[in-house]
Amino acid sequence: MFLKKLLLATTTVLLTLSCLNASDPEHTTTHRINEKVFVVERESSSLAIIEHSLPKSHLENMHNMNHGVVKFEGKDGYIISRDGWIMKFDPEKEVKLKEYRTSKSAIGFTIAKNFLAVANYAKKSVDILDRDLNPLQSFETGSKNVGIKTYKEYLIFSQMDNDKITVLKDMNYGKALPKFVIYKEFKDVGIMPFDAMIKDDKYINGFFQSPWFGVVNLKTMKFEKIHLKLGDRQPVLKVPHFGFWSIGGGKIFIPAVGDNKVFAYTPDFKFIKAIKTEGLPVFTALSPDKKYLAVTFSGKKFPVIEIVDTKTLKIIKRFEFNGKVLHVRWSNIKPNLYVSVNDANKIAIINTKKWYLSRELFGIKKPSGIFLYEEQE
Fold this sequence. Notes:
By secondary structure, this protein is mostly beta strands. The protein has one helix at about 1-25; strands spanning about 35-40, 45-50, 55-60, 70-75, 75-80, 85-90, 95-100, 105-110, 115-120, 125-130, 135-140, 145-150, 155-160, 165-170, 180-185, 195-200, 200-205, 210-215, 220-225, 245-250, 250-255, 260-265, 270-275, 280-285, 290-300, 305-310, 315-320, 325-330, 335-340, 345-350, 355-360, 365-375. The chain has a domain at about 100-225: YVTN repeat-like/Quinoprotein amine dehydrogenase (Methylamine Dehydrogenase, Chain H, 7 Propeller).
């Protein structure tokens, strides 16, 4: 009898604790991730916001969004406008918090734990701000500046007009505010560097008029040229954004400048294959599982997307839309590939499990860049 009562009491306690855990958020061990999609509305000084695969709202008065770029760091959102405004906003409350103008023209910036760095065009400088957009430092270069990235205590960028790569070093690294000095510069790296990416300790940049890309090893501070296997080059209507080169699954994918190819390399830049594409590639976007690569184009093939199998390096799917495709973005939590179809004022959603067009969202005004924010519900 005693054992029976003890078992009954134990069961009651366990059931009570289970109910408390289910109802009390402090005891909940699982969280759902909600995905918000922020889309640059190119000609409307605004961002469209998509949630649960439906248009939700617009964030307005964002200045010239002709080349707007959005980035997130923690729960902070930042936008840079084509006319040089850097803006801080709350991606959950969907409100602009502050803005500061670094130049009359800028398109590139990067975020670190305790600062932002903006690569300016018109002002021909690189400006350092704190996370609340208060100016800290400015480095005059005499050039349009591109490809700005961070690596540990270093800030790296390319000077488009001077054919130069500059490395700044933070002498206050790990402290509340940075203090940068010029650490090293690489000259005559290639004609007109225009974009860059960073992977581990390698800063990789591309050139508008040189048949190679450059690699700075940030551990050894050595520069190397990797020559591209280009054929007869065609006029370039839209410069490939090397920030959307793709690295993963043991390969590096690089869109050719002026050639109908995407190059595949090993992580140590050994050439694997030139993948023949339908048009001049602009973006190469790798899926989260590294199995597929979405390729977009310029010129006559603007409306087309090709999907490459990264294992076989063969094109397996093709989609064509009723307008220019300006950007794509893979979801990290859903089987979705978001596509901005600029002329048609819509975002298309491709199901990436069965490869079909699952939904079209209208009322998105001249969409271009697509940026994802993940929040816990």
